[in-house]
Amino acid sequence: MKMMLLYVDPGSTSYLLQVIIAAIVGVAVYFKTIWWRIKSFFYKGDKKETSTEDNTDE
Amino acid sequence: MNNLPAHPSSFKDPAGFIFIAEGIYYRQVNQAGSKDYSLLVSSGLYEKLISKNRLIRHTEIDTIKSDASQWFKTLQPEQLPFISYPYEWSFDQLKDAALLTLNIQKEALNYGMILKDATPFNIQWLNSKAIFIDTLSFEKHKEGEPWVAYKQFCECFLAPLLLMHYRGNELNKLLVSFPNGIPLPIVSSLLPFKTRFNLNLYLHIHLQAKMQKKGADDKQQNKRHLSTTQLINIIESLRHLIKKLSASGAKTTWNNYYDETILSNDYLMHKQELVKNFLMPLTFSTLTDLGANKGEFSLLLKEKVTKIIAADFDAACINELYLHTKAQKINNIFPLVIDLANPSPAIGWANAERNSFWDRINTDVILALALVHHLAISFNISFAMMAERFSQKTKYLLIEFVPKGDPKVQQLLSHRKDVFENYDQTTFENSFLVYFEILNKETIQTTNRILYLMKRK
To answer: Cβ contact (<8 Å) for B230 and A22?
Structure first.
């Protein structure tokens, strides 16, 4: 690793990255939602869990 | 009480610090942290997290202050039975700690707050579950701002989990060298090439590492805006990635020790009976099981004590024990991955931020079953060294002597020169008699192994 890194504000890289990730993940979530809708249209009786709420620590 | 020094690990946050008064841990909230702490309580987030057992419960105490000039409030948190560190946790322990952090972050956003740091050192174990202990990690979330602890989360949780999953469970030990997070360029180069084709993994690790290397400077920072929904999407993406990870490898040398070895069922049953018979008449409340394997003997004795530290160097065994204690809600066993020949050192500033393993051990009973031959033959640790160490840490010692003729010892010796002339029962007894008296001893059926109960002189 370059020593240079120590002088770069770590926050600004992370900020830009979070914006990029949010955009890409946002598109993925958008298509996933459409996919779930199509699926639930064809499998109306199938109540598959689509929520991402996690209960592992409860 | 005034002017009690801050705990050596508690100096980074201007919002407050931990101090100890008469053996009790307190947290002082400074004036600098008053707004965020008040919001945590008034928003209802504190109650919400307490009701889900995600955050440590506390009561406000006004009579004890550490630094009166900065004082806003003193909190007395529920006291923890034992402090352990992420480099001592097995895969699923670290994974549960990571998921807990993400759950808390998501919950905080619902209440207009956000986690300002994301380190596994903010997590401890209470009632067999991970619990968040840093009440002052919450701050008001300014709409549009990113998650300031995102990079820290990736370096401290995601990175070690990925390395453990893809490259080996033992890599949690990297956190000893990098307690503030494993640098992502290193993580990126250590992960297999195929991980570049996993979108979430690519974004959070490889792309971030690349951007850090380049030192990308974001000139547009002030104009950027991240909505709360976008932040939640990032958290969901991290959670999705982490939930799919599992401990690497199925079976190791020791996680089938009692299942498949040449050691028979009669041996195990008689040993269990002897352990019970030896210990039941004694009065004690804490036990440390060294070389605990999957915790067979810790589980056998769990009703008799308030706290058991179960340590083994095999990460897979400890992982199995953790999953068992979690599923069965066994509240008093603390599983730890510890290599006794090289236990966790004291680390951080002035070597005082995180205590060494032995500094945290002071117990009524040490259990050292099927252990001495490993320490002696694999690591050249003499009986005298073991006796001295154990005598400094325990009142009673339940220890199994494994003679040289034992098949397990022969197995250890098969790959090395036998330089252990003094590995015999007489030397063993004489070494321990310097510090202990022998209260009881008996040969374990179907073997020549001998179980000793000793008491410190």
So the answer is: yes
For residue B350, give the 3-state DSSP assignment: helix
Q: How far apart are CA B230 and CA B378, in angstroms?
A: 53
pLDDT tens per residue, range B417-450: 888 889 999 999 999 999 999 999 999 998 999 9
Q: In this complex, is the C-beta atom of A50 within 8 Å of any C-beta atom belonging to chain B?
A: no
For the domain bounded by B265-456, which CATH number is listed? 3.40.50.150
Tokens of A33: 């939602």
Cβ pair B337, B88 in contact under 8 A? yes
B258 or B126, higher pLDDT: B126
Hey, what are B207's tokens? 């792309």
Mean pLDDT for chain B overall: 92
CB nearest B183 (choices: A1, A19, A24):
A1
The alpha carbon of residue B332 is apart from the nearest alpha carbon of chain A, in Å, by 18
Q: Would the CB atoms of B234 and A25 count as touching at under 8 Å?
A: yes
% of chain A with per-residue pLDDT over 70: 53
Q: What is the pLDDT of residues A1-58, one digit of tens each?
A: 444 445 545 556 778 889 889 989 888 878 888 888 888 888 765 554 444 444 444 4
Identify from A2, A6, A54 which residue to disrupt to test chain B contact, counting B C-beta atoms within 10 A and taking the largest count: A54
Contacts of A1 in chain B (CB under 8 A): 183, 185-186, 213
CA dihedral B301, B307, B312, B315 (to 10 degrees): 110
User: What interhelical angle do B315-327 and B91-110 show, nearest 10?
Assistant: 50
Closest partner CB to A24 (pick from B53, B146, B203): B203
